[in-house]
Amino acid sequence: MPWIHRFLEFDHLSNHALRQEIAQQNILHAPTQQHLFREGDACPGYLLLLAGTIKVYKINTEGREILLYRVQAGQSCMLTTTCLLGLQPYPAQGVTESDVEMILLPAHLFNRLLIESSDFRRYAMSHIGQRICDMMMLIEDIAFGRMDQRVARVLLQRQQVGLIDCTHQDLASELGTAREVISRMLKNFERHGWISLSRGSIQIQDMDMLHRLINEH
User: Fold this and answer.
1) Which string of DSSP letters, residue by residue, matches 121-159?
2) Residue 118's domain is classified under what CATH number?
3) Structural domain range at position 180
4) d(CA 4, CA 12)
5) Which end of the chain is more exposed for a tag (fewer CB within 10 A), N or C?
6) Using CA of residue 143, residue 155, residue 207, residue 180, what is the dihedral sign?
């Protein structure tokens, strides 16, 4: 199936010449752990993810990371959109977390879509709005949230049948803190019997207690 059929905002374009030009864009492939953009890079086009996951994160001068958001299949990258709109370089970094397939629409096609398609404008703006809400929640979580609740929430989000394949450093990067802080928190969870730790993975033993922890006031 042609990739354009996955995005109704493009597939239903009334301008058939524009639709055809968009449909002819090649699918790009990138392996896992490949940087797609770094802070300060110019934005080459509008990114649409067809398969895989991209992690968008910020890194400070000391090398500490914090996850801003993930781009999943069927989504666009909010920072890419805002960089195109504002003619600004990327303010963060994006790296693949799996093998990915994507479309990179050139800036001139992005600009034509904004002018000619109300459906696309709604799609692009609603996606920016949702990401801003997500990032406001992230800021609130960092500024006011308890670290034990934040760790419990991420564990529950990432678990697959109770098993989480990640390191302490992975969680530290996602939560914007030091690995030592995460290690102490996980050891405390293990002492309570809520999780068990092994090299490179975490097994949830008591999901109900993690949910209770998250809901504590």
Assistant:
1) HHHHHHHHHHHHHHHHHHHHHHHH--HHHHHHHHHHHH-
2) 2.60.120.10
3) 145-215
4) 10
5) C
6) negative
Phi, psi of 172 (to 5 degrees): -60, -40
- Residue 191: what residue type? R
Average pLDDT over residues 32-58: 92
pTM across the whole model: 0.69
What the block records as the tokens of 62 is: 């000391």
Residue ending a domain, among 142, 161, 190, is 142
How far apart are alpha carbons 48 and 109 in whole angstroms?
Answer: 13
Q: Residue 205: what residue type?
A: Q
The 10 Å Cβ neighbour count of residue 14 is 9
Q: Are residues 129 and 200 in the same domain?
A: no
Same domain flag for 10 and 28: yes
pLDDT in tens, 134-186: 878 777 777 666 888 888 888 888 876 667 888 888 888 778 777 888 888 88
Tell me the helix, strand and coil percentages in the chain, rounded to 5.
50, 25, 30
